[in-house]
Description:
alpha/beta; 5-stranded mixed β-barrel; 9 strands
Amino acid sequence: MLALSLAPPRAARARRRPAWLPALAALFFAGLTFWLGLWQLGRAEEKRAKQAAFDAAATLPAVELAALPVSAAPFSRVRVSGQFAAAYQIYLDNRLLQGRAGYHVIVPLAYSGGVVLVNRGWLVAASDRAIRPVAPLPSAPVTLEGLLVPAQSRYVELSERGVAGPVWQNLSLARYRDWYQAKHRGELPDRMLLQTSPAADGLVRDWPRPDAGVERHLGYAVQWFALTAAIFALYAYYGLWRRFHAPR
């Protein structure tokens, strides 16, 4: 009983704790959540900028790809004439369009100024996935128009298990380069042509808007900022008000 009576009250023990520990913890987590909110706002603004460039390119006349500098802005509208390398056509699996499963058809096009990867469009998958997709290529030279975009903006591969013949789960540009350049000269640049015309080949070319997901990023930013405010409110109550107003 004597030991219990001599024990300091809970409030007194709390007051003896270093005051800077909860303050430091609150400052750290508030700073972290605030930074994450700013990062989400930055992602939203990045997508808005891409959409603005995409919309501006759609209103401009197409320029010849061979005359376009490597440093040209993304989403340039271009025209190119050349020959498809049919042996290197691949199909990116699990590409959805309006809820339907299908493939994106990727193939190199050699032209007078080099070579460029072309996303020809979307091909619906057969009901039996054992049936390999087929998107015939013209044997004669072709002239295409489309939007030139960063080749790795949407295609990332994390392992080598996503390749089964011409059907790939994702496009690893490094692996594709090694495969193509083993027998061809000229390096594949970090650009891809999203073909828009001609369209008489049965492929769908409904390219997603670059600003897709802006609302989601803004929602995440609001959540992070709200968490920052909650951390400050909790610290103000438990770390300050309770500390100095608790019964002694």
